[in-house]
């Protein structure tokens, strides 16, 4: 389908007549009629009832216009990003701690340099907490691990896939991830988080028994505890994060490695699409 024709369709539905639509998109009344007819021929359906004066959109015409609005928002956002147009506005972004300390700072620096009039406010919470705040309208974007399934009424935007590794003190013996996990006390990555629950489920699936007394949600704290010889853990290799310190050794968790998908939850009727896509492009570029 032609983007220009979709834009004309939306204008015709919103403005109530082909003449008004033509004024909105800069073409003649007859050109609007031809573009609508082209869409109808391509789809094999009637989008407007021409027995009425002026022609009135059919149920299918209104449904297509609703979807076309979202398509046009994505198209316009992509064009703005590609041409380097200045993006202005405000976004309230929530992020889980692992993304706050890895990918997000790099993206914010890029946005500051390329879009200085885009104001971004940052909030921190667990994945579930962010999703709830997004549903209440308190956030525009929630950066987190992908939930399964996605919370009702929210859309998922992919950013990256991060593998998990077993980290242990550099001197810890063991040739496999299971050797490391059963050789020292285990330090849980908080199982109230979506990522933590995923780790627990994978360990149960593999039948790996562990002895654990510590459970925290800070990757830096986990690395420090493991580096001090207090145990082993399973953590994601976060996009944009610093390498693990030399006092640690790491092995992939699983073969192939168990992974998580990181990205953003957004509300379909939330912030303008050009702001959302500009922010997402900066994240993906890290």
UniProtKB/TrEMBL annotation:
Annotated signal peptide: none
Superkingdom, taxonomy of origin: Bacteria
Classification via Pfam families: HTH_1 (PF00126), LysR_substrate (PF03466)
Alphabetical keyword list: DNA-binding, Transcription, Transcription regulation
Residues annotated as domain HTH lysR-type: 1-58
InterPro entries, alphabetized: LysR_HTH_N, LysR_subst-bd, WH-like_DNA-bd_sf, WH_DNA-bd_sf
Any one GO cellular component localisation term in the record: protein-DNA complex
GO MF term (any one): DNA-binding transcription factor activity
UniProt cross-references to SUPFAM superfamilies, sorted A to Z: Periplasmic binding protein-like II, Winged helix' DNA-binding domain
Sequence similarity: Belongs to the LysR transcriptional regulatory family.
Protein name in the entry: LysR family transcriptional regulator
């Amino acid at each position: 389908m032609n983007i220009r024709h979709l834009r004309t369709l939306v204008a015709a539905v919103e403005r109530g007549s082909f003449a008004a639509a033509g004024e909105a998109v800069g073409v003649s009344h007859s050109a609007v009629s031809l573009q609508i007819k082209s869409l109808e021929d391509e789809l094999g359906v009637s989008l407007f009832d021409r027995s009425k004066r002026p022609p009135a959109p059919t149920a299918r015409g209104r449904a297509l216009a609703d979807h076309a609005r979202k398509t046009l928002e994505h198209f316009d956002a992509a064009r703005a990003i590609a041409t380097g147009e200045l993006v202005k506005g405000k976004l309230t972004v929530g992020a889980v701690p692992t993304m706050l300390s890895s990918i997000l700072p790099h993206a914010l620096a890029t946005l500051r340099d390329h879009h200085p009039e885009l104001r971004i406010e940052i909030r921190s919470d667990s994945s579930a907490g962010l999703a709830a705040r997004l549903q209440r309208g308190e956030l525009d974007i929630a950066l987190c691990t992908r939930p399964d399934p996605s919370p009702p009424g929210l859309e998922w935007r992919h950013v990256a896939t991060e593998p998990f590794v077993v980290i242990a003190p550099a001197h810890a013996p063991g040739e496999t991830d299971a050797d490391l996990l059963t050789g020292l006390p285990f330090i849980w990555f908080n199982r109230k988080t979506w990522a933590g629950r995923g780790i627990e489920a994978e360990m149960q699936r593999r039948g790996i028994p562990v002895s654990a007394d510590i459970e925290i949600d800070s990757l830096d704290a986990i690395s420090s505890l493991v580096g001090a010889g207090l145990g082993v853990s399973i953590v994601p290799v976060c996009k944009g994060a610093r390498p693990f310190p030399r006092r640690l050794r790491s092995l992939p968790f699983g073969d192939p490695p168990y992974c998580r998908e990181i990205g953003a939850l957004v509300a379909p009727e939330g912030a303008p699409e050009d702001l959302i896509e500009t922010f997402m492009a900066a994240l993906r570029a890290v």
